[in-house]
Design a protein that fits this description.
The chain has 451 residues and is of the alpha+beta class. 63% of the residues lie in helices and 7% in strands.
Length: 451
């Protein structure tokens, strides 16, 4: 059975950048969004105060899936379903799940399951890459492996995650939250919500073979842990407001128009935000622009309104207004963002004049400097170089992109093409030489292993 994924947006703040077709016909869409990523990191940073783990060490990947789920894989990777956010009512429910997953990383649980993961990978059927708009978060082969592991981790056959580790992660999550003055009872509250939504779908056999203890047991352990702890802290209203906006955005992008209108039917800011998005997705650009201008007048410091407005203008081929609003968004966000520089870079190179294309190249170079694994920025950079008749650098950027998505043969070919004409002793020249050396060594090593 072949599954297809219909992309609602071609180039958006919520960017679907690849879709995988797993052996059980379950499609995974990995998305990137500045608002989603920044808020998640903000919640995570609160949990890491006084801990040796840094926020920069954690890689977040977000799956467009309405099921409540999150999991970790090796290399400090946390995968989060959008359903985890859209079905939460309080930001601390989401934060509690992050605390649980962080506890797996801090406890080294993924390392301990590496043997089983290797065995599992050898048994899994192939993963099919259905389509790419832009792989923005890193190497495709790494991402595929991670997603295979993550998907397998919820299958009945993958039971190496011991229930003791899950119990430990719950206890450690409570300690993380309480020590950072966050009400840990929301972990229990979210488990109760999960219990209500999913208990009926689990059979006794599934519970027996599940990688997690029964929810009743987990709630009981949490109650015992909280009994003698001083862990009742007030809600951060500022974070709750951010969460409400993010939730409305995710629901608007992942639910049907009818569902969104049923949920967000008032004149509140978050309701307007959701309606601006579904108007945009429905092709009613004028209404969406009108709503966003109203929101901007009320909250002029919100960068995400400007980002979305710029995106809509870009969809209308009004490149000047797209660039203007994305420039304001970059100023308002007040910190480097590879996504934001990628977006304005794409807007600039859409213009026909040389000066704009050069400005686009500068912004795309900023994007890959911040995140060298942003392969869509490398793609846009290669295109921009080709359009400005700089074929050596176009070949170099293409080599970088192919290397990141695991096409080492093509990466080597384009690196070799670039090296003869690229300016000697430039950063790109040195990097092209490094790529050739790295790829050649790995190919020789693989050939030796086979022999």
């Amino acid at each position: 059975m072949v599954a297809t994924v219909i992309f609602k947006r071609l180039f958006t703040s919520l960017i679907v950048f690849f879709c995988f077709f797993i052996h059980n016909s379950f499609a995974l869409e990995i998305i990137r969004d500045e608002e989603l990523e920044k808020f998640t990191k903000e919640l995570t940073a609160e949990l890491l105060t006084g801990n040796n783990l840094n926020i920069e060490d954690i890689n977040f990947y977000f799956i467009n899936n309405k099921e409540i789920n999150a999991f970790v894989t090796g290399g400090k990777n946390i995968f989060v379903n959008t359903g985890l956010i859209t079905q939460a009512d309080d930001y601390r429910e989401y934060q509690a799940v992050i605390a649980h997953e962080l506890s797996h990383i801090i406890g080294g649980h993924i390392f301990n399951t590496s043997v089983e993961i290797q065995n599992l990978s050898s048994k899994a059927l192939p993963v099919y890459l259905l389509g790419i708009i832009g792989i923005l978060a890193g190497s495709a082969d790494t991402a595929i492996t991670s997603i295979m592991i993550g998907q397998a981790s919820v299958q009945d056959g993958f039971t190496y995650y011991s229930r003791n580790q899950e119990a430990y992660a719950d206890q450690a999550a409570i300690n993380l939250m309480c020590s950072n003055k966050i009400d840990a009872s929301y972990l229990r509250g979210f488990l109760e919500k999960l219990d209500r939504k999913t208990l009926d779908s689990f059979s006794a056999e599934n519970y027996y073979r599940s990688t997690h203890p029964p929810l009743d047991s987990r709630k009981e352990w949490i109650n015992i842990s909280l009994k003698n702890k001083k862990c009742e802290y007030d809600k951060n209203q500022f974070l709750q407001e951010k969460f409400n906006f993010l939730k409305s955005k995710l629901i608007a992008f992942t639910y049907s128009k009818q569902e969104v209108k049923a949920i967000y039917n008032s004149e509140s800011d978050r309701d307007l935000y959701a309606n601006a998005i579904i108007s945009y997705l429905s092709g009613n650009h004028s209404e969406s622009i009108s709503i966003l201008n109203k929101l901007i007048n009320q909250k002029p410091d919100n960068p995400y309104f400007r980002e979305l407005l710029g995106e809509i203008y870009f969809a209308k081929s009004d490149f000047d207004n797209a660039i203007k609003n994305q420039s304001i968004a970059i100023e308002l966000i007040n910190e480097p963002s590879d996504l934001y520089f990628m977006m304005i870079g794409s807007y600039l190179i859409a213009l026909e004049n040389q000066e704009s294309k050069n400005d686009g190249i500068k912004n795309l170079k900023k994007s890959v400097f911040i995140n060298p694994k942003n392969t869509y920025s490398w793609y846009l950079l290669a295109r921009a170089y080709a359009e400005t008749d700089n074929l050596p650098l176009a070949n170099y950027a293409t080599a970088e992109r192919y290397y990141l998505i695991g096409e080492r043969g093509l990466a080597l070919e384009f690196a070799q093409k670039s090296i003869n004409s690229i300016e000697k002793n430039s950063p790109e020249w040195y990097r092209a030489n490094d790529l050739m050396s790295i790829i050649s060594s790995s190919l020789i090593e693989e050939s030796s292993d086979r022999n």
